[in-house]
Amino acid sequence: MENECVHKRRSLVEYLEEISEPRMKRRRKHKLVDILVIGLCSMLTGGEGFNDMALFGRIKRDWLNNFLELPHGIPSHDTFNRVFAAIDPHCFLECFIRWVQGLCPTLADDVVAIDGKALRRALDEGASIPYIVSAWASENGLALGQVKVDDKSNEITAIPQLLQALALQGCIVTIDAMGCQKDIAAQIVDKKANYVLALKGNHATIHQEIGEFFADAVQPCAEKADSTVAPKTMTSLKTMEKDHGRIEIRRYWQSNDIEWMQDKKLWKNLRTIGMVESIRRVKGNNSIERRYYLASLPLDINTFAKAVRGHWGVENQLHWSLDVTFNEDQSRARSKNAAQNLATLRRIALNLIRKDPLEKVSLRQKRIFAALDTDFLGQLLGI
After folding, report:
1. At CA 202, angle to CA 168 and CA 117, rounded to 5?
2. What is the pLDDT at residue 119?
3. CATH topology assigned to domain 102-324
4. pLDDT digits (tens, 9 = 90+) for 229-280
5. φ and ψ of 3, to 5 deg
6. Reading across the β-sheet that carries 194-199, which strands appear in turn?
7. pTM of the predicted model, to two decimals?
C-alpha cells in the first residue's frame, strides 16, 4: 500500500487518482477512483450519504461508463461506507489542498479564516461529537482544507496541523478566541503570514487590560458624529448596515501603542491591538458588543476591518452553506474515518459549485441543475 500522495496536475479526477488505496489487493472489486467520483457526483446533485451514492450510480450508470471503468458495475452502499471509512484522511486532505492550490495558486492579501464546526449527528455511543476545523479563503470564496479534532482534545491541537498543511504566504490568518495562542501566532508568522486573533476570557488579564486601554483612549463624540476622537497612535473606521428593520453600526479601532503590554514580546511580531464595537438596533432595542484583537498587522484600519469582516465569512459562507445546502449537520456517518472524509468530499463539492460561473443561481439550484443535466455536472467535474 502506498504511503504518499504523488503530486500531479490537471483535472480533479486525476487528483482523486492520487489517493492511496486503503484496501488489500485481493479485496479490491471496484476501483477507488470510481468510488470517489460517484460519491462526489452524488454530493454535487443533492445526495448526502452512502445510500444516495449507490442510487446515483445505478441511475446514471450509462453516463458514468463514458469516463469510469466500473469493472464490476456500481458499488453497493456498504462498499461506499467501508471505503470512505478506510481512506487515510490525511492523504485525502493533502490531495484536496493541492487541487485547491491549482485553483488558487496564491493567497496573497486574502483573509484565511480558521474556525471549527461540530458534526452533531455523527456520534458513536460513548464517544465525543466529531469536530472539524476548517480554513476558508474569504475573497476567493474557497474552502482550503480541514482537519478533525482528535477525541479528548480540542481546536488548540488541530489548528497547528491545519496551518502546517496550508500555503499561507502573504495572507492574513484570522482565528477566534480558542486559537488565540502564542505558539499558533508564532507558527503563522513562520509561515510568512499575518494574524488577527480574537481575545476572550481564555486570556482574562490581557483581555481586561486591552479593554481598559480602549476605554481610556477612545473618547465618544456626539451621537451625530461619524467617528471618534483618537490619538495619533490609533485609527478608526465606522460602517453601517440596514436590513429589514435592523440597523447595525460597527466601529473599528486599531492602535500600535502597545509598549505598555507586559506580555508583548511573548506574541511573535505583535504590532497592533484592535477593538470592534457592534451596535445593533432592532425595533427600538439596542445591544452593544465589544470584541478585542491581537494583530501582527501594521497600523492600517481598512486592512484590520477587512480581516475582521473576512472572518465572519467562514460562518456565513462555509458553515451555513454546508448545513443548509449539504445538510452536513445531519450526517450520521461515523465509522472510523468516514465523517472526516465525507467532510472533505462536501468541501470539494462546495468549491466546484461556488467556482462555477453561472450567475444569479443559488447553490441549491446549481445542485438541482447538476442532477437534471449531466452536461452541467460534467462541466463542474471538468470532464
Report:
1. 55
2. 78
3. Transposase Inhibitor Protein From Tn5; Chain A, domain 1 (3.90.350)
4. 456 788 999 998 887 778 889 999 999 999 999 889 999 999 999 999 998 8
5. -110, -5
6. 142-148, 131-137, 111-118, 172-175, 194-199, 285-295, 272-282, 246-255, 234-243
7. 0.88
Say which residue the cell 485609527 belongs to.
235
As a whole number of Å, the CA-based R_g of the chain is: 23
pLDDT digits (tens, 9 = 90+) for 6-29: 444 468 999 999 999 998 888 789
Residue spans of the domains in the chain: they are: 12-86+344-381, 102-324
Strands (E), 100-229: 111-118, 131-137, 142-148, 172-175, 194-199
User: Under a CB-based contact definition with an 8 Å cutoff, are residues 98 and 12 in contact?
Assistant: no
194-199 and 172-175: which strand pairing? parallel
Spatial separation of the C-alpha atoms in residues 84 and 22, rounded to whole Å: 9
The pLDDT value recorded for residue 5 is 43
Using left for φ > 0, alpha for ψ between -120 and 50, and beta otherwise, residue 100 falls in alpha
pLDDT of residue 339: 87
Buried b (16+ CB within 10 A) or exposed e, 318-334: bbebbeebbebeebebb
Contact 218, 193 (CB under 8 A): no
How far is CA 120 from each of CA 135, 178, 309, 324, rounded to the nearest angstrom?
Answer: 20, 19, 27, 14
